[in-house]
UniProtKB/TrEMBL annotation:
<dbReference type="GO" id="GO:0046872">
    <property type="term" value="F:metal ion binding"/>
</dbReference>
<keyword id="KW-0479">Metal-binding</keyword>
<dbReference type="Pfam" id="PF13419">
    <property type="entry name" value="HAD_2"/>
</dbReference>
<comment type="similarity">
    <text>Belongs to the HAD-like hydrolase superfamily.</text>
</comment>
<dbReference type="InterPro" id="IPR041492">
    <property type="entry name" value="HAD_2"/>
</dbReference>
<keyword id="KW-0460">Magnesium</keyword>
<keyword id="KW-0378">Hydrolase</keyword>
<comment type="function">
    <text>Catalyzes the dephosphorylation of D,L-glyceraldehyde 3-phosphate in vitro.</text>
</comment>
<dbReference type="GO" id="GO:0016791">
    <property type="term" value="F:phosphatase activity"/>
</dbReference>
<dbReference type="InterPro" id="IPR036412">
    <property type="entry name" value="HAD-like_sf"/>
</dbReference>
<dbReference type="InterPro" id="IPR051400">
    <property type="entry name" value="HAD-like_hydrolase"/>
</dbReference>
<dbReference type="InterPro" id="IPR006439">
    <property type="entry name" value="HAD-SF_hydro_IA"/>
</dbReference>
<dbReference type="GO" id="GO:0044281">
    <property type="term" value="P:small molecule metabolic process"/>
</dbReference>
<dbReference type="InterPro" id="IPR023214">
    <property type="entry name" value="HAD_sf"/>
</dbReference>
<dbReference type="InterPro" id="IPR011950">
    <property type="entry name" value="HAD-SF_hydro_IA_CTE7"/>
</dbReference>
<protein>
    <recommendedName>
        <fullName>Glyceraldehyde 3-phosphate phosphatase</fullName>
    </recommendedName>
</protein>
Amino acid sequence: MIKGILFDLDDTLYNSSEFVNIARREAVKSMIDAGLDIEFEEAMKILDKIIKDKGSNYGKHFDDLVKAVLGKYDPKIIATGIITYHNVKVALLRPYPHTIKTLMELKAMGLKLGVLTDGLTIKQWEKLIRLGIHPFFDEVITSEEFGLGKPHLEFFKYGLKRMNLKPEEVIYVGDRVDKDIIPAKKLGIISVRIIQGKYKDMEDNISDYKIKNLTELIDIIKELNKK
């Protein structure tokens, strides 16, 4: 009997890749307008390398970009980038179609819902609140909070503990084979891969189910609970 669902967040409940890329590009354009003396495409190459080297959760991407280009700290240009980035992010941040409707139906079915996500706790909560979906979740579990992230099995075990459910009672929904599906399956959690976002073309011959829309979860749960 399925009693709960754990969701990945980025590129599972909303289009993380698209909105972040647009926000970063608009931020760099505004920084150039504010005095960052560099061509746009060259600035993006430098920023992309900073993000790759420092990670997406690093908090000073724009600081490092300014220092790399100008050789010094310029608070006006950095602040311009930060403000533009957040303004664009807020304007674009929306759940995938049918996300809210599906979450409402799942709650109506009496299921416990949780989020198990890599990232900084405040940032992930900010996304959930801005998306307007935070009230649906009984638990929100982040890698920063636990100290380890995906694909560590201990992180998934911690998620099960927080949900107070056994592996066979839980579905895990995510977009990546390597970080979502493989660890879930190793623990005996039913795995559902949603085919969307930048990892949609990953080779996948192991997911228990593949879906293109969250609404498909409803039928999967009904099918499983008949067994």
